[in-house]
Amino acid sequence: MLVNHQCLFLMGTVEMISRLFPIPTVSLRRSITIRASVVSSSASTARKTHPPLFLRPLTYFATLSDIVAFRSWATSLATAAAAAAPGLESIDGGPSASHLLRELSWLLEDATSQSCGKVLMRADLDELYRLWKERIERRRPFQYIVGCEHWRDLVLVVREGVLIPRPETEMIVDLVRDVEGFGEGLWADLGTGSGAIAVGIGRELGENGRVFATDLSLDAVEIAGINVERYGLKDKVEIRHGSWFEPLDDFKGKLTGLVSNPPYIPSSDIPGLQAEVSKHEPKLALDGGVDGTDHLFHLCEGSATVLRSGGFFAFETNGDIQSELVANYLSTKWTKCFTNVKTVLDFAGIKRFVTGFRQ
């Protein structure tokens, strides 16, 4: 009976993989809540990117009993790890056994397909065993294991060295869509990371709209470029390497809008984040300085220079207190530059974003 159930599992879930591309679909993958010149050959110095698991060719095969054995072993490893660390979620926000088992199902979806009674695979069994062991024992993020993250209706390539895009950040695209005339404007996404926001906005723009996405990290520049190309947006989204506003000297006073999900975690808080974040995600994309506002205040100041009159901005923050602090900073020190400054709630009802307009 176990084998029959596994057959049904494989037949039912692997079909999802073929539907993900070329037309991506919305996924239920949701996990954690929390980076000066046009890109050139220098980006080649970044780490070599291996294709995400579900985009690899089906060059391996296994028997159904092999898959059943792997799933049984992986389930035991996940449940044993959860039992050995009771209260893990309350300690550092780590994954529960049920969450890990959902990830296990997603791993098998990405790695396998069934044809003529055979289980075809995009990685050999030895690699699957190694990857799952890293997920459990090293607390390596699942998104780095499979090489992608589902965000809005996108499936974005990610890897070590690049921040994993979070669900709440999706709202920035919605905030942009609410701006009158946004579709034909010039936009900037600073600290683009995987390129999630830039790609999300780029897909909404009209014929004359453009997004200029910047990042200091060559890893991020490379991955963002891959995601832009995968979604056919090279004529809409331009990735530029450099720190914050430096690559945008040719757009002073010209931008319709500016968005950013900058590093905003206070330096002293980073060691206390869940291990998946503190031990694996790039500190460059997390560390916002002593109180987390170093980069946010820099973005506030730079916005006064690059935005045209009536230009819109939206910044993600650490939430509530920090959001109010940034909004107050804009409304007092920069009162002659910005108007209609306000905080915006995220999906969880937290004051996550600060928005406003250039006078």
UniProtKB/TrEMBL annotation:
GO BP: methylation
Keyword S-adenosyl-L-methionine: yes
Source organism superkingdom: Eukaryota
Entry's Gene Ontology molecular function annotations: nucleic acid binding; protein methyltransferase activity; S-adenosylmethionine-dependent methyltransferase activity
Domain Methyltransferase small: 185-264
Keywords: Methyltransferase, S-adenosyl-L-methionine, Transferase
The keyword Lyase is annotated on this UniProt entry: no
NCBIfam families, per database record: hemK_fam (TIGR00536)
PANTHER family to which the protein is assigned, alphabetical: PTHR47441, RELEASE FACTOR GLUTAMINE METHYLTRANSFERASE
Protein name: Release factor glutamine methyltransferase
Gene that encodes it: LOC120277387
